[in-house]
Amino acid sequence: MILDLLENGKHYISLNSQFAKAFAFLTQNDLERFSDGRYEIDGENLFATVMSYTTRPVIEVKWEAHQKYADIQYMVRGKEAIGWAPVSQLVLSQPYSEEKDIAFFETPRIWTTINMSENYFAIFYPQDAHQPSCVCNEPGEVKKVVVKVKLG
């Protein structure tokens, strides 16, 4: 898992051949103007989903992880808390869905909370279980972009 400001995204492009395109999409577009939905960057290898929502209490949000894609989650507006824990320390609650590229997990005994606010991004790899969309102090409106980067 990586957490940083978008202005530092250039430091991470060597980690994956698609990261340069992903960070270019995030920095070269006025994402505030984008409607919610999916945006193709490089077909199934790289795409973004823009979403707007109200953050929810931790007890209402499932823990998840992916196998085929890494997530670059970027906060356009608002703030939220995201839980993080190693997948290897979690108990599976719903088996992995190949079609949706997602597995769900029981709430771990120990986890780390990441507080995301505007202009921050987090990168989650397959070993990183995460619990996005959680309340940070109080419920709030969020606009976020999740860039899915195909692995392998």
Give your account of this protein's structure:
Strands 1-10-5-12-3-2 form a 6-stranded antiparallel sheet, covered by helices on one side. The chain has one domain: Jelly Rolls. It has 152 residues and is mostly beta strands. It contains 1 helix and 12 strands, in the order E-H-E-E-E-E-E-E-E-E-E-E-E. The model has no long low-confidence stretch (mean pLDDT 97).
Concise summary:
The protein is mainly beta and 152 residues long.
**What is the C-alpha radius of gyration, as a whole number of Å?**
15 Å
> What would you call the shape?
globular
Integer average pLDDT: 97
Q: Examine the secondary-structure arrangement and name the CATH architecture.
A: Sandwich
Number of domains: 1
Span of the ends, CA to CA: 18 Å
Helical residues, percent: under 10%
Write the CATH homologous superfamily.
Answer: YhcH/YjgK/YiaL
Strand content: over 45%
CATH class: Mainly Beta
